[in-house]
């Protein structure tokens, strides 16, 4: 008997998350066992609110698939809705079960980061507990690259490519004048320095930038920072610095704390911004040279015009494999990436029990940080370089990227 | 008798300025009348300091030319040096004349914005006054697009393409959640809204963003701005706003004034930043929805990974034509672009007496601003769309842009 499948997206945007969605739809269309392919709008919240749309009728042509793959941010919409524990709110789970029955859902695919894996885990355990054959697969997505159980996360490679390119370009911009200057590039990544680490990739294209890298894994010292800059100015005009938004002082306070906004999301995460601005003012006051800080900001997660082909291909493959895993009867697993070798770069899609990975943050390897604490070792290149390989030409109209938009008219169902 | 030529770059960086340099070198190599091709490091300052390098020996292969063309910011370095009036400092002019004699310079090409044209004008008039056959040609360059005597300036098209693409991407990023939000994109352009105008180009690819556009040409009202946002929130969740860094209140104060840094350059220009941040705080306090401001910052002028082929080709052609104009005996002219038609897009390179254009700012046409003052009319598309046509694939190494760097060992000469 045919089963329908349901896919939804959650968490923060990335440039590759729709390639995973495209992979689910593409693979779903290939199997006779699968009937309808539904998408829920705004993640698990849209499931609960019965805001489901039909996907097969909307993505048909190669160009539509390509457009969807190259469209940044969740085409189905996202949510930050945290599924409560079953013990506290059994009614929510029963409602979801009822909705899945109504729509004949046999497999649910949830694309997202750590918080979304938490939801996928809870749902899969609930269905097992009530002896319901509804399979739940988690599909990783986060530019932060901090998920456990996968070599890296889809979205990270494209973000890394944008960051590396932007740092290379900004470094050239800063080099135009014949005077001492400091340029501070502030990079996303609350707790792990994965994104900040990508800033060193320009060195693989013949540059020396950035000269200094401050990771959130290392206690930040303002005095040490100013000393680093002074030392470099003795031998060169231009100093380019990559700094994580999440750097903290020895006492645990974020450097950006004085610049912090009050916005706290549903998972208690605080929106950080301003480490670069604070360091900019420090350089201006204590060193007095030309100084500028640049926040790469949300382009890090949505710059679809500079995608990594490796990233997009892997994101799509994860979507495709997730469908196969579900059809094999697996549930409560995440489709993760397992690196077989660096050169040639080979990466397999494997399953990982979500229970083993949910809630854990995969930190940046301490041994890749130079003993000085203000730079990285060359080990990072073996890991990072394969992830940014290959260009993607996104569909454009009039020279502007043309994005895929779903008709979001919700299905009426009884 | 063979003459040597000298080229230098000045003013603020752009992504196309080295294509103009490449054009000068390319064309210079084709004429028997031209001997050596020198580049001065850091503009007119490098001329005065005799910091000249040989260019022909450094740019030989097609790949080198391509790399140079796709390298952002001045490959020869820039300066903000303002040439004093002859009456005040005749010695500087006599020194430059002496240096030009030493190096056998018959033509000087100065690539830059308004301030650089001022220098080119002064030098050309000095050489004419002292009956010296040294020709001086100005080559336009500025992302600001505010030079007189040219339909547009090289560098503007690529900046416009980056801005349009970034706004399209950011708009998708902001659309992921099912809640009211405001996203403010702050765009460069001190006095003229040319760059901010490029933000509407995503509408030519099937989107409606940005919903509001605040140009520096229109008096800014905080109350009007908040009212605009409230009105839009009545009919849609997500409001994307493009705002020029240079918007001012009715009394002439910059909106960013409270955020202004004290840095003033040699031409008395003040570095602006912060209009977006101020509006962000206003929305947070007065409307209370999710709000974020994004400063596109210096990537607007150095994002070589998303060049306009039209822009790069025109920048190169301007360099080539400048050499031909000089060989024809012209001096004191700028090589400008004259648009013949929009569709098909045809643009000629012509000469314009610098005297007629130096010191003037070409404002954004008032009639392209909607009567409401918070949007643009469709007229802007005819003008803008041809300028962003065509993609350029910059040379890369390991997936990272590979930039051209000159060996800056200065020539020793007697």
UniProtKB/TrEMBL annotation, chains A, B:
Organism expressing this protein natively: Acetanaerobacterium elongatum
Keyword Translocase: no
Needed cofactors: Mg(2+)
Binding of Mg(2+), residues: 114
The name this protein goes by in its record: Pyrophosphate--fructose 6-phosphate 1-phosphotransferase
Pathway(s) of this molecule: Carbohydrate degradation; glycolysis; D-glyceraldehyde 3-phosphate and glycerone phosphate from D-glucose: step 3/4
Pfam families for the chain: PFK (PF00365)
Residues the record marks as active site: 144
Site entry (Important for catalytic activity), positions: 141
Subcellular location: Cytoplasm
Gene Ontology molecular function: any one: metal ion binding
TM stretches of this protein: none
Top-rank EC class of the record's enzyme: transferase
Annotated control of activity: Non-allosteric.
UniProt keyword list: Cytoplasm, Glycolysis, Kinase, Magnesium, Metal-binding, Transferase
GO CC term, one of those recorded: cytoplasm
Annotated site (Important for catalytic activity and substrate specificity): 115
EC numbers on record: 2.7.1.90
Broad class of the protein's primary localization: cytoplasm
Residues holding diphosphate: 12
Family statement drawn from the similarity comment of this UniProt entry: Belongs to the phosphofructokinase type A (PFKA) family. PPi-dependent PFK group II subfamily. Clade 'B2' sub-subfamily.
Protein task: Catalyzes the phosphorylation of D-fructose 6-phosphate, the first committing step of glycolysis. Uses inorganic phosphate (PPi) as phosphoryl donor instead of ATP like common ATP-dependent phosphofructokinases (ATP-PFKs), which renders the reaction reversible, and can thus function both in glycolysis and gluconeogenesis. Consistently, PPi-PFK can replace the enzymes of both the forward (ATP-PFK) and reverse (fructose-bisphosphatase (FBPase)) reactions.
Assembly and binders: Homodimer.
Gene3D superfamilies noted in UniProt: 3.40.50.450, Phosphofructokinase domain
Reactions it catalyzes: beta-D-fructose 6-phosphate + diphosphate = beta-D-fructose 1,6-bisphosphate + phosphate + H(+)
InterPro entries the UniProt entry points to: ATP_PFK (IPR022953), PFKA (IPR050929), Phosphofructokinase_dom (IPR000023), PKF_sf (IPR035966), PPi-PFK (IPR011404)
Residues binding substrate: 142-144, 188-190, 245
